Amino acid sequence: MTTRHPETTGRQLGRRSWAEPWKIKMVEPLRITTPEERERALAQAGYNTFLLRSEDVYIDLLTDSGTSAMSDRQWAGMMLGDEAYAGSRNFYALEEAVREYYGYRHVLPTHQGRGAEHLISQVAIKPGQYVPGNMYFTTTREHQERAGGTFVDVIIDEAHDPASEHPFKGNIDLAKLADLIARAGADQIAYVSLAGTVNMAGGQPVAMANVRAVRELCDQHGIKVFLDATRMVENAFFIAEREPGYEGRPVAEILREFCSYTDGAWMSAKKDSLVNIGGWLALNDETLFEEASNLVIVFEGLHTYGGLAGRDMQALAIGIAESVSDDHIRSRIGQIRYLGDLLDGAGIPFVKPVGGHAIFLDARRFYPHLEQDQFPAQTLAAELYLDSGIRSMERGIVSAGRNPKTGDHNRPKLELTRLTIPRRVYTQAHMDIVAEAVEAVYASRESAKGLVMTFEPRYLRFFQARFDRL
Ligand code: F0G
User: Fold this and answer.
1) Could you confirm whether 228 is annotated as catalytic?
2) Are 287 and 349 found together in one domain?
3) Would residue 390 count as lying in a domain?
4) 42 C-alpha to ligand 1 centroid (Å)
5) Reduced to 3 states, what is the DSSP secondary structure of residue 234?
């Protein structure tokens, strides 16, 4: 077996290189189902892993969102909840944490990331404007389109190639961005929608040099840059590892510097920040903040809680500080690379380099005999569940939805099945089981027949669509 990341897998250096910087204090039993039970459960779920009951799942790699284990300190923080309607002390703790670690001036809590996406889209997009970004994300684009914007993908071409080993596949292609500005006119650009570790590209990072260059270009045209900071701590880890001038620097420092090139951010705190619920919108601009701070009351709750309980804001404030610990982030990414190395050794096709939050299996190369209309990535998620009770998620044509103008399927180049690793939840033995299951499904890949969609919801169809076997 090849070991591609000795510094994080610890294989060649022994266990001195890294291990989880915590021990386990409380456990939750898992249920192992029979093949017959899984066959029944999956058929009932319309071959969509989002529609399975979690009790029918053995190892749950659906998402890293809201699935983290909180620390004893975060749980202690829950007991400090100040459940006042207005001006809760936990809000000020959250505001201070965002200011200290992300560096933005004004902070609004929201119930989760898409609450903040809704607000930023409503206050910063005028109907008809373009919103260039480094690859779409499902909920982000949905809110941009609802506000009357048109998303334009300006990520570098390498991001669409699962085999490219470019170290910063999340980078914006400055020529594509400059070209859009020239064609549309700067006043027709709402803002640049920049995401850290690009989810749909495989958790691929953006370089500091790239955000700096984007800032410079946007300054020339008076265009704002807003950041999807959801997995920005993971992005900072890759900068510390790969970018000249940043080697070995603390991720907390890198995070602050990166955010300093942007005008604000929206956050799904359910990822990096190690909480089960929560988000925020942060803005430096007074006028935009005032508008958003008024609008938050309509959709989320008062501007000092935004849909969160006081205890949730306290756990989040503590989680933010824990998330930028270098030991934490090294073991977080180390675990994903451990799984990646096992799969690589078995010749399984997946997106390289291994990204921040998941392994993205390449369903096109898994099932070269299936057309994209037969939903290869959805099929792979179904087969993996049937084999072992492991739950994964489709990130291909189903997730990409339809073009709102033409009604056709969007057809992404990437047809991926995501094995998403929750933070501080599963052990190395679980990763071994996952690798064995993927290998078993790979061994029987030629028998996979694909799926047909039998029910298609109007919005974000991947969450609730139903399928049948072909
Ligand atoms: N931005 C990114 C990059 C995300 O990955 C997500 C959620 C959101 C915004 C929206 O945040 O879920 O808190 O409303 N991603 C989850 C996932 C659903 O599984 O990747 P939310």
Assistant:
1) yes
2) no
3) yes
4) 24
5) helix
